[in-house]
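Q: Could you fold this chain for me?
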Amino acid sequence: HKPSMYFIRIILGYCVSVIVMFIGPAGSGKSSLVSAYSEWLRNNGYLVKVVNLDPAADFLPYMPDFDIRKYVSAKKIAIEEGLGPNGALIKAMEKITEKLDLLINFISDVSKDGVDYILIDTPGQMEVFLFRDISWRLSNSLKRVSKDVYALFVIDASILKRAIDYAFASLLAIATQLRLDIETVPIVNKIDLVPALEVHGDFLRDLSIIERELASDSTSYAEMLKDISKILLMYSKGIEVPKVSAIKGVGIDELHRLVHELSCTCGDLT
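A: Sure. Below is the predicted structure, expressed as structure tokens.
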């Protein structure tokens, strides 16, 4: 798809780069997925840049082209200001927000150089990123750089033990889209850990299973999710949610298919 996507964007005046943010709960495998996808893209001839936006990362499975730890370190903040891990992360988010221009200038520059994809690995603690000003400030700034800005909401397959678990995860993905005001779709990662799981991530395809399970559950939580499911149906995209394993390299081509459909001008996911 690369030649057609590249020239169509140039003709229509689009920024060449597709920007993808990876967001999700701690332990969902965001960094591993960024690593696996960036490697897949490079192996298929695409030009890729990777951004690490986690100031507290001890180890990254990829070599970032832009590393926020060069400017803001949560560990250093904790030592200098006598803060605990959470307090240091919150303070780090404030400092990153003040330095956001550094990141935006980097992304703008590499976009002009013809980079195909820019992958952004967000902080491991999702709530520290989403509930702070940095999340919507970043998304608004990115939209001024490129018309193709999307978020992948990464879900750990091992937590989807019941249908209502996926309904809840889908709701989080929709809330993320509302917060960022950019197209956000779920990705189920770590499927190598739960190969026999019946429902592991496609609300539309698995709707009958989900409805059946909710109908047999009399708890107030299930009753609430029955109503919430109507919202999920209204706002969930008509797509087959990719099931991937970043560690095993499984399903990365399906992940790319989704990203391509998001960025294709002829695509309709509603």
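A (continued): The longest strand covers residues 149-156.
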